[in-house]
Specification:
- The protein is an alpha+beta fold.
- It has one domain: Hypothetical protein apc22750. Chain B (Translation Initiation Factor IF3, 2-Layer Sandwich).
- Helix content is 15%, strand content 45%.
- Strands 1, 2, 3, 4 and 5 form a five-stranded mixed β-sheet that branches.
- A hairpin with a 2-residue loop joins β4 (69-82) and β5.
- It is elongated and about 60 Å long.
Length: 104
């Protein structure tokens, strides 16, 4: 599945069908680890779990089976402190589409 942040597909591809937005929110505990570790060692490469990639996989799983891309992916985050720790809430949204190569 193609996952892109731009609302338009790359040149040579054309949208044949689009569906309603899909979204996913991932809770990531950050109180006992650094932000870099929480995001899968994005900066250090030291963590075996990558919650951001998990959120992208979850977003792709919410798309209709016929979709082969999600376009216009946007992210938002917030944090909240609870008695059991501090959590980062990562929300991803995007538009599932079915695309084909443009026929000339």
């Amino acid at each position: 599945m193609l996952l892109i942040t731009t609302p338009a597909l790359p040149e040579g591809l054309v949208v044949k069908k689009a569906w309603s937005l899909v979204s996913v929110t991932q809770a990531i505990q950050i109180s006992r680890k650094t932000v870099a570790q929480s995001l899968g060692g994005l900066f250090t490469g030291t963590n075996d779990r990558d919650e951001f990639k998990e959120a992208l996989r979850d977003l792709a799983a919410k798309a209709p089976a016929q979709a082969n891309a999600i376009t216009g992916i946007q992210s938002s985050s917030t944090s909240q402190q609870f008695a059991n720790g501090t959590f980062l809430y990562l929300t991803l949204i995007g538009t599932p589409v079915f695309y084909e190569e443009r026929k000339e």
